[in-house]
Amino acid sequence: MAAKKENNSNETNAKIEQLAQHTTDGADQPLTTNQGLKINDNQNSLKAGTRGPTLLEDFIMREKITHFDHERIPERIVHARGVAAHGYFELTESLEKYTKAKFLTQVGKKTPVFTRFSTVAGSRGSSDLARDVRGFAVKFYTEEGNYDLVGNNIPVFFIQDAIKFPDLIHSVKPEPHNEIPQAASAHDTFWDFISLMPESMHMIMWAMSDRAIPRSLRMMEGFGIHTFRLINDEGKATFVKFHWKPRLGVHSVAWNEAQKISGFDADFHRRDLWEAIDGGDFAEWDFGVQLVAEADEHKFDFDLLDATKIIPEELVPVKIVGKMVLNRNTDNYFAETEQVAFLPSNIVPGIDFSNDPLLQGRLHSYLDTQISRLGGPNFHEIPINRPVAPLHNNQRDSAFRQTINKGKVAYEPNTLGGGCPFQSMAQDGGFTSYQEKIDGNKIRVRSDSFRDHFTQAALFFNSQTEYEQTHIVDALSFELGKLEVGAIRERVVYILNQIDETLASKVADNLGIEIPAKLDLPMNMSFPADANPDDYQPIPKKDAKVKKSAALSMANTVKDTIKTRQIAFLVADGFDADDVKTMKNALENQGAKAKIIGLKSKSVKDASGNEMKVDHALRTVASVLFDAVYIPGGEQSIAALSEEADAIEFVNEAFRHCKAIAASGAGVNFLKEETYVRKAANDKAVILNENGAKDAAQNFIKAIAEHRNWDREKARKVPA
Ligand code: HDE
């Protein structure tokens, strides 16, 4: 056992060492060229005379500027905006019965991982808070080679076949004639495409829900989406879907809030992940699998190969078998986060693909795209992409080759190299593909079993609470309201009506239109756009086996922790130091972060004149960057805050976004007299306590753990 443990940590250390060998901060080192030549003058170029022209001979300047000229590489065509961290995956329950993959069979084994989160549509400099799907890509550096689980935070996808991917992405990206809008789906081309692709409707329900505006990357689920296969020692296959469940629960912000966060801190998610890890609050997810025996492949009323469908957890529960901990930030964003290359085709013995036509296309695309993005086929040699497993083959040369392969043998079979490197038998870890029986015509067609586009869209909508449904209606009304072409709007509303009549009528009402009685398609188009209209008509919603699924609503998530929540304390000179101390201690004991916000940048004085450092000046922040607000007592402090429009807006906005708000002493008057909180009778997330912070703390903690009091929207007609 001890030996095994040592082995695990050796592997983790090996990856860290491997990266460390390529790491430099230049400390105590002379400045050199890329050839190691020490530089004597880094201030002046080589010139013909003091005031003469610069000489072509200045190889030092030319090397430096040439490198600079090429500092930017093409960004990812999708998922350009991202952030990543290192950590490990630890297996807690063996899947030995189903797979021979070593990292999934040895309980307690820790496998190093590098995980990158991203938005999809925006370019690299866009905002973290765009309404969008989030990428959730994990590279496992296993002893049998790299395994990449390249998933998203939404368990389904827009399209069923990879051949549609370029169309989907061209439609959602900024429109090509004027490159507007950035990182937004609320424009004509996206909805034009969607209105002709009814298969996207399930995904649209998720994308228009609050799942598309997470509170934190540490508070979102991850899904492998496709059905994959696990293969055990006997070669037996079991279908599998992969899940990541965040230990802090699944939480989101309000749409109005998301738009404002984008202005106040476009790096909100990146900063949140960085600061949490930096402060020792490691990000954690449980890892789960849904397993389906091969014999049960056809027992569902949807197709396991259709990536627009989930397997409801009521039909196949998620079995938790491990956890992932992200505990180390990158040393260099570019070298690690930007240069990491994820490939769904990176698998290890014990895992195999299914015939999902979306997955099949991905197996080609990722390798292909890295070749132009990372400058050639040697991107596997970049430190972050190197496996910890040893690597030997006869691939040679091309741009930026790092390995110096010795000897004259670069082919196999050979005798001159002693037959090396040699093939491995399956029992020695040699990869063999699962021998699936295939018997069919060579044909371009969509399987009939892929035709039902509305049943699961309705399942998702029906599984939401009232406020979640309202948010979907609001999001659709926002997106469709932005369109310039009315006919697109009408088509989408017509399709929404196939999912749920109330949904469609509420959206139609917000848009000021009627639900169209029939689909109006220009140019004799078929629905959806398909070569042969008779061949492919979406079928109406079925009477599904599962009508509501608890796992689909975020209302049912973890709500018993305030760990890492950011609580704003609004103060000015003369604040009550006891209030601040008591509340700060109470919150920090539960793992939350109290942030002092004063009127000036440096410090603020309490009622006795003692100075306290502030974390932020009010003018640099807004309540959208925090989870809750506390106003401590202190007559003078409150008098000053009452004169500050920003302080009043801070509270009003927190109220509008349904956050927990607490006050003690004179702070109560501020809330009651100056802000919307005066309207908040019986609001469980407004905690007013004239007697001091101590009594307020417990109720405040409870309200913060609930994340939001979304009911406030209904009671107070507070738009969010
Ligand atoms: Fe991707 N996708 N994708 N995708 N995808 C890329 O690869 C592609 C799809 C996902 O953090 C690209 O390295 C096709 C589904 C993530 O680096 C590219 C299809 C899912 C990331 C590509 C899909 C994803 C990518 C662009 C349709 C969830 C970011 C840059 C069949 C399961 C990984 C790159 C990172 C990135 C192609 C659909 C997830 C162009 C053709 C479904 C998380 O190769």
Structure write-up:
The strands form three sheets. Strands 1, 2, 3, 4, 5, 6, 7, 8, 9 and 10 form a ten-stranded antiparallel beta sheet that branches. The N terminus is likely disordered. Helix 4 packs across helix 12, helix 11 packs across helix 13 and helix 15 packs parallel to helix 17. Among the domains are: 331 residues, Beta Barrel (Catalase HpII,  Chain A, domain 1), CATH 2.40.180; 157 residues, 3-Layer(aba) Sandwich (Rossmann fold). The protein is of the alpha/beta class. It is built from 19 helices and 18 strands. The longest helix is centred in the N-terminal third of the chain and has 20 residues. A hairpin with a 2-residue loop joins strand 3 and strand 4. Bound molecules: CIS-heme D hydroxychlorin gamma-spirolactone 17R, 18S (HDE). The site of CIS-heme D hydroxychlorin gamma-spirolactone 17R, 18S has 26 residues, from strand 2, strand 3, strand 4 and helix 9.
Distance between the termini: 54 Å
CATH architecture classification name of the domain at 55-385:
Beta Barrel
Broad shape: globular
Given the structure, what is the number of helices?
Answer: 19
Tell me, rounded to a whole number, the average pLDDT. Answer: 93
- Small-molecule binders: CIS-heme D hydroxychlorin gamma-spirolactone 17R, 18S
Look at the helices and sheets and give the structural class: alpha/beta
Per CATH, the class of the domain at 55-385 reads Mainly Beta
CATH superfamily of the domain at 55-385, by name, is Catalase core domain
Range of helix content: 25-40%
Percent of residues in β-strands: 15-25%
| Total DSSP E strands | 18
State the CATH topology of the domain at 55-385.
Catalase HpII,  Chain A, domain 1
Query: Sheet with the most strands?
Result: 10 strands, antiparallel
> Cα-atom Rg, whole angstroms?
28 Å
Instruction: Give the quaternary arrangement of the chains.
Output: single chain
